[in-house]
Amino acid sequence: MTRPIGYFVHHQGRGHAERCAAVVNALPADQPVTVFCARSDIFPRFTRPVDLVTLPSLFEPTGAEDINDITTAPETVHCAPLGWPGIREAMATMAQWFATARPILMISDVSAEVAQLARLCSVPHVKVLQHGLRDDPGHQAAYDGAVGLLCPAARALAQEDWAPRHLAKTHFAGGLGVDVRQPDPSARQKARATLGVQEDQRMVLVMSGGGGTGFASAPLGIAARAMPDVTWRTIGRIDEDWHATEPGNLIHHGWVDNAQQFLAAADLVVASTGNTTCHQILASETPWLAIPEWRYFDEQVEKARVLHRAGAAHMLPHFPASVGQWRDAIDRTLGTHDPARQRALVDEDAAPKTARWLCGLIEQLTPNTPVTTGEYNEYPSEHPASETTDCQRLDAGAGA
Predict the structure, then answer these.
(1) Fewer CB within 10 Å, N side or C side of the chain?
(2) pLDDT value at position 18?
């Protein structure tokens, strides 16, 4: 019998769930997979059998906390407060599944605590490696204990401070979970016609992602006033400032289902560097002014820096604060634009390649004979010693 894979998914934003669905859908249909997440409604459609277990949130209190936490959190963890029944239930659910399902692999996207739980429960784990300053003991322990690291970005976007020992076991997957197919040559014309943008009208798109509180409106009002002959359109969440004054060439569309169409129509995009947003823009090959939003561990700041270094975006640490600054930022963005460099950072085959890499790990982890060290037998004799994985068929096209 093929041993299952477990997959923990953080429920903030869309990127974690999109990556999960892409990877799981690329695995062989008869590879058992159990997905653990605090929300079941954030996933794209699974095209193969999946067990989805809804956990209590590991990150949000409910009011049922039953211990007065008088401790200082150790540096080896990020979110491990005392007295949270939800955390106890979530961790117990996964630990019980480890004991009964005998998984061959657990993927954590992302939680250093879940990764370390798997290791402590004697389950091999793959940790998703995100950008950011993650040299703290908690992240480093999760990375060191992993059998592999999965980075949802191209190798060219690796941070300079990532340790060689971690890079040696990292699989890079630029564009994983996002539609990064080459734009249709007629896509721009069709998109502009659909959105009502005139052929000779310049358009700047502002994309505000789903993982935070959204962009403030005041700096966008300044930008639109700086370029009155340019149409400025926003999609996603915009946080209104009471003091903002917005001209008529600034149009807010809110949440949309056709972000790629807006990108195809745009002459330039202003956006943060969340996972989905990042790969949508790279795939569209649109000139990009990257403005990172606040995230834990400076995740978006570090990603914006490597994008700038790779020549895929022009980075500013914050919004321009005056008309002159906006004009200078736009000129620099257009002047440094290189669509070929953007295209090189995404891979249309990221999901099947990731599935093949995971299957390679599984094959290495699956023993041909029971492993005995002293009095301990890691794989009890009641389970066949010759069990193998169905992942070998992936190279022949299964699940691709």
Answers:
(1) N
(2) 96
